[in-house]
Amino acid sequence: MRLVCLDLEGVLIPEIWIAFAQATGLSALRRTTRDEPDYDALMRFRIAVLKEEGFKLKDITQVIRTLEPLEGAVQFIKSLREKTELIILSDTYEEFARPLMAALGYPTLFCNSLVLAPDGSISNYRLRQKDGKRQAVKALQSLNMEIFAAGDSFNDLAMIREADAGCLFRAPQAIRESCPDIPWVDHYDALLARIEAFIGL
C-alpha cells in the first residue's frame, strides 16, 4: 500500500507564527523552521518572546481562527484522498491545528502538544516523539507501506529522505540550493502529478 505524508504549515495552511507576528507586530516571531534548523532553539526563543510580551495561548488561537487554508489546498486534498491515503506530519501543536482541521476535511494529523501554565500562558512544549516526522515514516514503512513525503522546511528534510519518494513544496531558495538531492515543486498540480506517478496512476 502507498500513502502520502505531508507537512502542514506552508504546505496546506499559512505559517501560524508568521500570522501571529503580523497580527501583533512582533517581527521576531516571523522566524520559522524555514529559517532555523534547530527546532528546540526556535521554540525556546518563541516561548521567551511570548512570556516577555505577556501573550497567552488564547491570543494565538484568536489569530488562528481568522486563517483559512492556502488557496487550492482544500481541492488538492480532496483530489489526493480520492487516489490514496494521507497523513499530516507536523511540528505544530494540537492546540494550534485544531481550529483549521475542519476546513481541511479532518485529515489524520500527527503533531506535538503545548504545556500550559495555570494562567494559560505557554510554558513549554512536548514533542510527540523526537525526530517525529522521520520516525513516523519509518514506522509506516515497517507496516509494508510505501511513503511519498513532501514539505517546505528544514524539519521536513529527514522525513523526505527517509520516504520512498518525495519532494520539497514551495521551499525557500536556500533550502533548495542546500538539498540538490531533493526535487522541488511550487504548485499543487505539480505535487499531485508526482504523487500520481508514485502510486502508479
Would you write up a description of this structure?
With 201 residues, the protein is an alpha/beta fold. 42% of the residues lie in helices and 20% in strands. The model has no long low-confidence stretch (mean pLDDT 94). The chain has a domain at 2-13 and 70-112 and 128-199: HAD superfamily/HAD-like (Rossmann fold, 3-Layer(aba) Sandwich), CATH 3.40.50.1000. It starts with a strand and ends with a helix. The radius of gyration is 17 Å and the shape is globular. It has helices at residues 16-24, 39-53, 57-64, 73-81, 94-101, 132-142, 157-162, 173-178, 188-199; strands at 2-6, 85-93, 108-116, 122-126, 146-151, 165-169, 184-185. It has a 7-stranded mixed β-sheet with strand order 4-3-2-1-5-6-7, sandwiched between helices. The protein contains 9 helices and 7 strands.
* CATH C-level category of the domain at 2-13 and 70-112 and 128-199: Alpha Beta
Helix-strand makeup class:
alpha/beta
CATH architecture of the domain at 2-13 and 70-112 and 128-199: 3-Layer(aba) Sandwich
- Please count the beta strands (DSSP E, at least 2 residues each): 7
C-alpha termini separation:
14 Å
User: Rounded to an integer, what's the Rg over CA atoms?
Assistant: 17 Å
User: CATH superfamily name of the domain at 2-13 and 70-112 and 128-199?
Assistant: HAD superfamily/HAD-like
Q: Give the SSE order as H and E letters.
A: EHHHHEHEEHEHEHEH
